[in-house]
Every structure is written in C-alpha cells, then in structure tokens.
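It would be a great kindness if you could assist me with a short task in structural biology. The matter concerns a single protein, recorded as an amino acid sequence and a row of backbone structure tokens. Could you please explain, in whatever detail you think fit, how the structure tokens follow from the sequence? Thank you for your consideration; the sequence and its tokens are set out here:
___
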Amino acid sequence: MNKLKAACLTAAIASSSVSFAGGFLTNTNQNVAFNRMMSREASIGIDGVYYNPAGVVFLGDGHHLSINWQLAYQDRTIKNDYSLFTNNVNNPITPREFNGEAFAPVIPSFQYAYNKGRWSFQGNFALTGGGGKCTFDNGLGSFERIVAETAMAACGLARTVDGALGSVLGREVSMFGSDQAFGAGGKYSYNSYMHGRQYYFGLSLGAAYKVSDNFSVFGGVRGIYATTNYYGYVEDIKVGNMPLYMVLDPTKKDAANIELSCDQSGIGFTPIIGVDFKTGKWNFSAKYEFKTRMRLKNKSVNLVPSIGNLPANLSSQMTQILTAQFTQAGLPAEQAVAKAEAAATAVLANQTVQKTMLGLKNQFDTELDEAIGEYADGKKIAADIPAYLSVGVGYSPIDPLRINVGFHFFDDKNAKAYNNRQEKLGHGTLEYNAGVEYDINKMFTVSAGWQSTNYGLPEEEATTSKDKRFMDDKSFVTSSNSVGLGGVWHFNKKMSFTVAYFHTFYQHKKTTESVELIPGNAINYTADYSRNNNVFAAGIDINF
C-alpha cells in the first residue's frame, strides 16, 4: 500500500505534458519557422525574437509580427516484463505494454518587433514549457508492479496471522489465507487511471541595438507563469477474493482507494542576452538565457488510506469470524465473544505478527512521506528551468540558398528539482541541428532540417537501488532525432504564410532492476521506454 501510494502521487510528472523539441522544461519550437527548418539560431527573421533576438534589428525599420499555431500529438510506450504480472486475474501476461497519449490541439505563439534606426524593441508570447495533457487510461506498469507486490505482501501477512492463530487455537487455521480471502498465490485485480496537464506561459520583452552595420547586441527578460494539474487514482484493489478495504475499514468501500488531485502554480523570471555578427555571406549568433528560479505552490485535495487501522481491523475480523465458529460449536454467545476476543488479542501480541505489521507500517509511513512531500497542500516545490545557451552559424553561398547549423546546451544539472533529482544526470542536454531553405522564386520558399537531442541520462542497468535511478515510467525521456520540412508562400513583401511538419524519432531506453521480495530470491523488473511525436504548424508573418 505504501509503494502504491508513492507511485500514484509521483506519476504525473512525466504524464503531464506534450514533449516538444528542447530540454526537460524548455520548448524551443516557438515559431513555425523552426518546425520547417529546425535550425534558426543564425537566421534573420521575425522568429528571431526567440531564436536570434540580436539579429532582428537587421530586418529593417517598421513593425514585424508573427502569429503561429501548432498542433502536437505524442504517444508513449513502456514495455514491462515482471513475473508477478502473471498473477493479474484480468490480464495474466508478461511482458506487457502500457500506453499513454498526449494531445495539444492549439499551441499559440506571437512574436513582435518594432525597428527604428539602430534599435529593435521586441516581445514574444509562447508556451515555454508543457503545452498539453497526457492520459494513461490504464495507469502505468509501476502501478501494477506495486499492486502485485502488495498482493504478495498481503498473502505473506495472511500466512503469518493464520499461523499465529493456529498456535493459539491448537489447530491448523486458514482464515485470511483461504481461497475466500487473500489466498496464497498473490492473485490480484485493480483499476487505475492518470492524467496530467502542464502549461508554462512565457512573455518576453527586450531590445536589440545595432552597434555597427555588422554587429548587434540584445538584452531582455522573460516572465513565466506555470500552472499544472494532476489527477489520478488506484482503486478497487482486490487480493485473491478479498477487497483490500476489508482489512483497513470494512465500513467504507473506498478505504483502500488512493486519489491524487493537485494543482500547482508558480512565477519565474529569465534574463536573456544575445549577440549577432554579419560578415559577407556569413552570419554568427549566440543567445544565453539565465537559469529561472521556479517554485511551484501546491493546492491539493488527496485521498489516502491509513495502514494504522490495520491491527484493529484484523482484530475485528478475527473476533467476528471466531465468534461465529465458537457459537456454531455450541458455546454460549458471551463465552464465544470472550474466547474470540482473547484469541485475537493473543495473535496481535505475537512478536512475529507485530514485527510484520510494524515493518509494513514503518515502510508505509516513510514512503508516504516521500510521496506526499512533493504534493502536500500548501508546499512549495523546486522546479527551476535550466540556463540555456544557443549558438548558430548561417551561410548563403547564393542569394536563394541559406544553410544553417546550430548548437544548444541546457544546464540541467544546475537547475534545482525536487529532492535534487538533477544531480543524478551525467550532463546537461546537448542538441545539434542543421537546416536549409531555398527560394524557388519570389513567391515560394521550401526548407528542411534535422536536430539531434542527447539527454545526460545516467547508466541505469541492473540497479537494485531506487536512489540511483533517474528515470522510470513516471518520469522518462529518451534521446532522439527530429526532422522537419515545410514551405513559405510570400503573398507580397508585407505578408507570408508558412506551413510545416516535424516528426521526432525517439531512441529506446532499457532498464533492469533486481527485486528481492524474498531474501536470496531475486527477480528482474525490466522496462523498455520509447515515444512517438508529431507536430503540425502554420503561421502568418506581417510587415507594416
């Protein structure tokens, strides 16, 4: 029950948002131009308000506006193999796939610049992180793993209690371990669901200054408002033929249910600087976004079971069943009750029973505190957005052709996260990209690009300690390659229309954990993680 609670309450982190290009908490596809070319760091365009703000000053005098819309769809697949999954009476198959779907139908962004002389005054509004909702209709593999382990633990406790009761009564007893109760094989069933949404709204303001005809600088700041919601449950847990609530509070059918309902919000600010240098057919640029200190405040209404009621309810169950048995054996009612109560008291006084229940309670309380710690009502959670460096080089061998390459670095290891999770990373996120665009004529431009994303994930094979793990199905990313293509229709010198599509090919990440439920008898829990991502986009650029 303790592990089950922890899984439910931590599951929403990764299931919350559609994943785009960029680092863990940063979307870099903030303009349709990126989707069609992937490398825009050294381009001179209105999209440069985000990608190359220092270069926007070279657009020329006047107002420049870009209005963009994106639609993103992602599915996530985790294949788990665990021998205990064969105890699921509704789906006794292993390995098994768990699938989640994330969909964001409307992702808007706006870039604006007013250029006058050597100055460019700029603003950008976009979703700098998150951007959608992800749903796991059947929960996650980690949910089922913990239900399966809970079922085995319940059967173990049943054997311990039945053994102690048999010693008291002087005969073999099969009360909680009978086929009508928990049974002996660890069979189980349950229902589970999880969804989360995450939006990081960003508004940037800044100014670029043309130091010379070839060199410009930029300074600005972005304000970020984060809002998230997580909802999920694990309910109707049954071990063998006994609903789990029967040993926690038989009067309440939801006594063993776990429900998470948490809203988070926070505000942060990001200073931004940039430079651009033009020479001949070449253009060089760089931008640096400082770390954003972000603290998310929780507003939660969570339902949790209490394992502290377990001894009293076990006593009540034993007393009720034994009273009926003694009465049927011919004892008067008062004597039957007294004898049953004495037997139940003796069982609960048994050191082996006490040790088993105390171990369960201590483990429950510890992991419950770890789980609730992140989602406790009123608490502030560290969720920094990492510092971000981008550099780009652009080359135009002939006027209609432009070739770009770029590099991104996200300093994830120095962005504080809950429980300093960032320290488990090997390095920050590294991205490399390249793109090309070609003017077919004055009316049409076509383009394509590629980007490689490498997260600094630690090696996690065959670990036996959860403290050494960075990634599981509640929070996972995998390195990837993305390709994009699109085109621009130039209506005239003042207006153009852009369409684009990009697809991300995610790598597989496999992990193996050795689980020792019985001392000296280890079994493996394996996972194979991957994703699939598609983004469609369209936009209008206007000069006036």
